[in-house]
């Protein structure tokens, strides 16, 4: 009982701190060494084994469900869906928020920085395991035929623009693998915002700036078509 009371008090403090930060951002960006493949691989290997049951408890106690739904499925078009995400990618994102590699100055990001700083590595591993244990969402939006141009981007890429096929990293069904995120069932609006953030260099936390390079020459129409395609895709 005492443990639960202390946790609740701590969470209230985190929530108040998050609310206070919303108008003024989350402060000066700390220095964070960009990931190398070697450093990221070793960091994730050193993470403790995650427990999905404990992760569900943390998800509820830290009020992650307020934005990300009961099992990680976004209840609105404003937040990312986390259900079905690879555990490695979720862990990486939390570490990026915690250490300053992901430092986007808007409301949701401010909250995530505060929460990531409040969690230890075991809690991060546990919530990552919880989200990975739940099936991804399939969004019910009006299905549009996939054009030959978009199909090529997904399966073959575009050599003329140095764009790697989406499927080569994210899988044939958008299922992701290890630190490469699952994108099947992702909220289409969040997908678009993420691609535009990489394209505009507002988000640079991926290894070797891969997404910044691949999104550079994509048109708005192509990004939206990819968002719609993956939103309705089941892993």
Structural category is: mainly alpha
Shape: globular
Strand % is: under 5%
Sheet with the most strands, sense and barrel status:
none
Summary?
Helix content is 52%, strand content 0%. The protein is an all-alpha fold and 235 residues long.
Structural write-up:
With 235 residues, the chain is mainly alpha-helical. The protein has twelve helices and no strands. The longest helix is centred in the first third of the chain and has 20 residues, at 2-21. It has helices spanning 2-21, 37-45, 52-61, 65-68, 87-99, 107-118, 121-132, 148-155, 166-170, 188-199, 210-215, 220-231.
What are its keywords?
single chain; mainly alpha; 12 helices; globular
Topology:
Blueprint (H helix, E strand, L loop, with lengths): L1 H20 L15 H9 L6 H10 L3 H4 L18 H13 L7 H12 L2 H12 L15 H8 L10 H5 L17 H12 L10 H6 L4 H12 L4
